[in-house]
DNA sequence: TTCATAGTTCGATGATAGCCGAAGCATTGG
DNA sequence: CCAATGCTTCGGCTATCATCGAACTATGAA
């Protein structure tokens, strides 16, 4: 007498190493073409095509035709959240990748989680925002306070009114796999990351498929000035 | 140049239908024996034994020997959270089980999520608790307020001091797959569900493996009196 | 001790599904 | 129109892995 949605199909999709590599590559938030994803997974385009069709049927990714390219992106930030959740379990069980490159510490410090900042600095930022009362928890979601709106406008030139989105909250807590605490997701989290990039405080690592975010010397100083660790 | 924990192994574990059935059976929060899990998954004990060994190695379940029985439980509420998250994605993609029994509406209304209340009533409860300022979001977690502690003691005879646990927060937001909003997890969520059961306001469905929670007529009245929908 | 139950290990089997080569569409550019 | 590129479909190969029968260990009961 089973009931409820059938997990195993979705999980099986993520369970294949090739598909999993594609999905983690898409966690950068960027849309990638079928061939790029094939290379990312280390398989031929034919095989990739089959995998992509399955992922699409499973509702994990969405295609967008553009000329003779097919760009794929994760359908939803929620998908990224679940992937992060799985990473948390895998990390605890000690199932790290065999090739744990030198980039790993950098990944723990600051990385892209779909479209917002994660890792040590991401968690630090949300903590600091709460301490400064820029956000608070009201009914069911985190909310930007009046003080927070002023702060965003003055310090980061982000107009809070532009952040509303029909299907996505402005603020959302996203569980960080490396820190096991929350960082800020939602349209605000995305907008802030965008601004950091525009201001050249931070830049995504150039290695294709890397989620690492590198802060410049000046950028880190400015970032810490706004969201410094607990005094 | 991959980095980070390897998701695919964990996901592959969940991806097998038999193992997935076992895991969802364990989402009741109860510990089940190897044979019970075998029956739940519809496979022979030998096969189940192999699956259980894999799930244990993957860190998803934990055994506990008791006489000649081996009881298995989910290692961690976090595992249950990820499973709920996967259900959310599966539900959106329309991957419901083929045999969507008559219990389905009941499951959406009230069910056990590991050890606390989920479904419509679970979401309603957390909403109401926030409205009544029994809990609030402080730094990174939901916190029980002074008012909340009084409420718990007076209305439900729950001593807030007994709720602290070395590895588990008192309050935690858990994403509900059917409502797509949060309900209350953590030791408080578990304690409240226990109390509801003790007071005979609600009881888990007798069907083995069912996550449905049935509220008595009186129980629902009392529950609504405390955590009624928004007035 | 003897029997029954719970669980595991081993070996063989069979089906699923990932993989690639080759060929086929579709779009762009010359 | 032809060539090149991006992607998909088809067919066959292969390896993985879930499955079960049979035999074995361990605990508890008579």
TrEMBL record, chains A, B:
Residue span(s) of domain HTH arsR-type: 1-94
Pfam entry (one): HTH_20
PROSITE patterns: HTH_ARSR_2
Biological processes annotated in GO: response to cadmium ion; response to lead ion
CDD domains documented for this protein: HTH_ARSR
Top-level taxonomic group: Bacteria
InterPro entries for this protein: ArsR-like_HTH (IPR011991), HTH_ArsR_DNA-bd_dom (IPR001845), HTH_CRP (IPR012318), HTH_Metal-responsive_Reg (IPR052543), WH-like_DNA-bd_sf (IPR036388), WH_DNA-bd_sf (IPR036390)
Gene3D superfamilies: Winged helix-like DNA-binding domain superfamily/Winged helix DNA-binding domain (1.10.10.10)
GO MF annotations in UniProt: cadmium ion sensor activity; DNA binding; DNA-binding transcription factor activity; lead ion binding
NCBIfam families in alphabetical order: HTH_metalloreg (NF033788)
Protein name: ArsR family transcriptional regulator
